[in-house]
Fold this sequence. Notes:
The protein is α/β, with parallel strands linked by helices. It folds into two domains: 86 residues, Four Helix Bundle (Hemerythrin (Met), subunit A), CATH 1.20.120; 193 residues, 3-Layer(aba) Sandwich (Rossmann fold), CATH 3.40.50. The protein has twelve helices and eight strands. The protein has an eight-stranded mixed beta sheet, sandwiched between helices. Helix 10 links the parallel strand 5 and strand 6. Helix 6 packs parallel to helix 7. The longest helix has 18 residues. It is elongated, with a radius of gyration of 21 Å.
Amino acid sequence: MGLFKKVFGGLKKTAAAITSGIAAIFTGTGELDDEFYEDLAAILLTADIGVSGTEKIIEDIKKEAKQNHIKTQEELKRALADSITRLLMRNIEVGSVGSPPVLVSSDKPMVMLIVGVNGVGKTTAIGKLAAFYKKQNKSVLVCAGDTFRAAASAQLETWAERARVRIIKHAEGADPAAVVYDALTSAKAKKDDIIIIDTAGRLHNKGHLMEELKKIDRIVTRVMNGLDYDYKKLLVIDATTGQNALSQVEYFNNAVKLDGIILTKLDGTAKGGVVVAIKQQFDLPVVFVGVGEKIDDIAPFDAVDFAKGLVGAE
Length: 314
């Protein structure tokens, strides 16, 4: 199965909820009235698209219905997909973070700081990213910066072995900043293309752990000073988290200004629309989607395909 088909498969629950909702309210007997738009808004809100995103989508659908007279459920779903695509691609230029088909660094080395709370699939996402870039013939180094959680480094080492990439790690309980410093120094010496840094699953109410994250951020900037490189800070979000994801984005974005989102566990939720809510509230793009358990089950985010899958449009 192709990766984009897997993304569609991951969105089955959300698409089924939206499709069944549309079938229940769409009569096809004439003009769409205020009651219809209220019901459609309720369906979109149930999918966690958020108030702001829902209002914009309803506004778009009203314009489309007035201009082109939406007559079928499929026409409505296509109009919804087009509107959602525009929301997801707002302020994103071709070649920038968040634009299809992939987060790239051209010929520059790239440091990726991966953050997120425990349980979202952060370690798995890092392993998949390492394999993804390795397949592009990039030299990849993984840094085991989560020294707080028992066996975190061992788990990451297993993924690094599967991806056949180098890993820098210290003993459990070591200073995370020191691990990051050593990894960056090694990467500079070896001229690695991609450096992926794991961090502790910081609960957003743990102030001292957020301070540690800020410290790591400063070290990356200092060690890489003077080098021509890209530095991206990505938050891993569990799609099943729903609206709670918004508070995670807010806390981590305040600690280290985020560049984008990695979405995991998409197949476990009927609320995949939280991606739209995140984009609307924080203007952060999703850059990768985890679509399974295998090492190559990660897909660069594509707004067009995602929007179609979200509403079940053909």
